[in-house]
Amino acid sequence: MNRQLLRFSVYTVLLLAAFAVPYVVVAGPERLLAITALLYALLAISWNLTIGFGGIFNFAHIGFFGLGGYSMAVASVVWHLDPWVGLLVGCVVGGIAGGLAFLPVLRMRGIYIALITFIFVQLCYYMVLAVPSLTGGSNGLTGVPSLSVGGFRLSEFSGLGYLWLLGFAVAILLIVLDSVIKSSFGRSLIALRDNEQLATSRGINRVRQQIFAFVLSGAIAGTAGALYVSFFRVADTTLFSFGFVTLGLSMIFLGGTGYVWGPLVGAVIVTFIDKQLTGLGAWQSILIGGGTVLVLIFLRRGIAGLVADAGNAVLRLVRIRRRSLTNSPPMQQKEVETNV
Amino acid sequence: MIDALTAIVVSAVVLGSLYSLLASGLSLIWSTLGVFNYAQGGVLVVAAYLIWTLSDQVGLPVMLAFIVAVPITAVVGILLELVAVRPLLRRPNGTLLVMVSTLAVASALQGALQLIFGPSNRKIPAISLDTVAIGNTRVAVTSLIALALALVLIIGLILLLKYTEWGASIRAVEQNRKMSMLVGVRPNRVYMTVFAIAAVLACAAALIYGTTSTITPSKGFEPLLTAFVVLVFGGSATLWGTLVGAFAIGLLEAASSYYLGLQWSPVIVFLVLVVVMLVRPEGLVKGRSN
Questions:
Q1: Residue A278, pLDDT above cutoff 60
Q2: Least confident of A26-30, A103-107, A196-200
Q3: Confidence class of residue A109 from pLDDT cuts 50, 70 and 90?
Q4: Which of A21, A145, A270, A299 is buried deepest, with most CB atoms within 10 A?
């Protein structure tokens, strides 16, 4: 009961925070930074579902993101559909791409997925270049219209609408994924990661669970890509660049793979650092790349891990204090497991 | 017709030599450590810039520059293993961590090269300008040197692995890490050697790549991706498979860019890859697998 209450209050705080963001971040450049961070957060949080919780070597996430972005651009610029329809198309295309990227692995051993998914991104890049009549080739598609509600364009007031939309999207995504991870599906995914043989022997179907994880995270990435393109008004082949792959991975591992909210923290910090580094040119990729290696080596569970450890330590301290005050006999201490 | 065929075959030989050198390094690392090294393309470009600096800037003959570059590249490989692989490999989920860290190293290497050499195109001077007549077409000696380099290094490696005690220790770690420790093999030392060998192979690949095409700091990913295709295509379990796969992909790429145009050849290569994965997931050459 207590746990449930805590969970719902955390959810409420998240939604309130999403509502409050535009009141805290007022100036134009800051709003741009916040929107970028939230877009990356969508990408990193959904990526973490396969790479973190699933433990699947998925390097194709940028491909789902880019395909979603291109679907948005093609739907709204070439086919003149409503941008909201474009968003839906991006979501569907991302999901399908997720399923397709997983398919070749049906007949191969698990580690091959690291190769296939890496090649998948490049395949998307070449496919986009191969049909210039639809995608604009290497010039990309420009003039993607902004999303609008009624007559109000979300990009007005330095992207006020986008800030709200993305804030709520991230909050809702965190809430949904938290439930997904706690569901039997999420638990089976983690079981497959930790001990595949034991998990399958207990009747978990590896292919079915993992393909579902791919489709789900692909659909979210596709939506994120569509939002990214509709905010920046342009879709080009930099969407599939390797710089993006490293950036996304650095966010996930800095934030912490073991927690739903870890990549959000990572995305905000890395976006901020990346912004500070834009003037440095080549140093940017040296610092992001080198920093990622350092984080992997020295910050095993990411920032989220540190925070969780600190939280547990505080809880333990409070408990010890309470026990010494009431002078009750030492109880059997229940292990606090907050792996959300 | 015959001329077209010869042109395709010559181009396929050069591409095949390049891919076989790069992919055999990847294959060796994969079979011993069970990870894919995403920084292999980065090592290739580092080696290419080294050879370019030593030959074009310092003024050494290209082959001498290559020979000087080999030990330096080997050190780069060892450093890569020490920094990005060793601290992470034995952790739970270490395979994923190592692959992410090598990818990050590749990105950092690209930035470092950009910083030192700038973004402009560089080309290593030709090893030799001579040509040999084969039928009606004249074939550049450079292509033959490339082929010889690839065959000598890879077949030499296969023989070393098979007949020397040192090769046996690598194969022992590959087959059973704990058991090999019991008989006195040090896995860490083996891993380091394997990375050094892979770096040397990448250095030879860099010689071929840098003399036949231009290099920029970001040029490492393209041959790396094709080398990945080669791994799947040839079956990554044996180096013979890698060799066969590399030349098959080289031929496919040369033929498709000759008949369909340059922009279609990667698409064709990837499509064939998908078909091979569905029809023959163990690769063209079947071998022992871990």
A1: yes
A2: A103-107
A3: low
A4: A270
Q: Is residue B186 part of a domain?
A: yes
Which residues in chain B have their CB less than 8 angstroms from residue A59's CB?
A: 99, 103
Dihedral (CA of B208, B209, B214, B216) sign: negative
Burial of B72 (0-12, 13-18, 19+ CB in 10 A): middle
pLDDT above 70 for B3: yes
* Residue from B26, B96, B98, B105 whose CB has the most chain A CBs within 10 Å, to mutate: B96
Greater pLDDT, A321 or A182: A182
Is residue A236 domain-shared with residue A271, that is, in the same domain? no
A225 and A278 share one domain: no
Q: List A residues 243-302 in contact with B (Cβ-Cβ < 8 A).
A: 243, 245-246, 249-250, 253, 281-286, 288-290, 292-293, 296-297, 300
How far is CA B103 from each of CA A25, A277, B221, rounded to the nearest angstrom?
34, 20, 10
Mutate which of B89, B277, B289 to test chain A, going by most A C-beta atoms within 10 A?
Answer: B277
Looking at the structure, do residues A233 and A257 belong to the same domain, yes or no? no
Same domain, A17 and A132: yes
Residue B164 is which amino acid?
Answer: T
Q: Does B275 touch chain A (CB under 8 A)?
A: no
Interface test mutation site (partner A, options B40, B82, B103, max chain A beta carbons within 10 A): B103
pLDDT band at B285, cuts 50/70/90? Answer: low
Q: Please identify among residues 134-153 of chain B the ones whose CB lies closer than 8 Å to any CB of chain A.
A: none
Instruction: Determine which of A216-225, B52-61, B140-149, B260-269 has the lowest per-residue pLDDT on average.
Output: B260-269
Domain-located, residue B187: yes
A245/B103 touch (CB, cutoff 8 Å), yes or no: yes
Distance from CA of B156 to the nearest CA of A (A): 27
Domains in chain A, number = 2
Rg for chain B, CA atoms, rounded: 19
Instruction: Give pLDDT tens digits for B180-221.
Output: 888 888 889 999 999 999 999 999 999 999 988 889 988 888
Q: Which of A209, A240, A271 is the last residue of a domain?
A: A240
Identify the domain containing residue B109 by its residue range.
Answer: 20-219
Range of the domain at A336: 242-340
Q: Shortest Cα distance from B271 to chain A (angstroms)?
A: 9
- For residue B138, the surrounding DSSP H or E stretch is strand B137-140
8 Å CB contact of B104 and A289: yes
Residue B224 lies in a domain: no
Q: Which of B34, B97, B289 sits opposite A296 (nearest CB)?
A: B97
Domain stops at, among A240, A270, A297: A240
ipTM: 0.86
- pTM of structure: 0.86
What is the tally of structural domains in chain B? 1
* CB-nearest partner of A118 from B101, B108, B228: B228
The CA distance from A204 to A189, in Å, is 9
Q: What are phi and psi of B87, to 5 degrees?
A: -70, -20
B242 and B24 Cβ atoms separated by less than 8 Å: yes
- The confidence score (pLDDT) of residue A276 equals 86
Residues A225 and A267 in one domain: no
- Bridge partners for A142 per DSSP: A234
To test the contact with chain B by mutation, choose from A119, A189, A195 the residue with the greatest count of B C-beta atoms within 10 A, namely A119
Residues A130 and A253 placed together within one structural domain of the fold = no
Q: Are residues A302 and A335 in the same domain?
A: yes
How far A115 CA lies from chain B's nearest CA (Å)?
6
Q: Verify that A202 and A318 share a domain, yes or no.
A: no
Q: How far is B84 from chain A (nearest CA, A)?
A: 7
Residues in chain B: 290
Question: Does residue B256 form part of some domain?
Answer: no
Count of alpha carbons within 13 angstroms of residue A241, beta-carbon side: 13
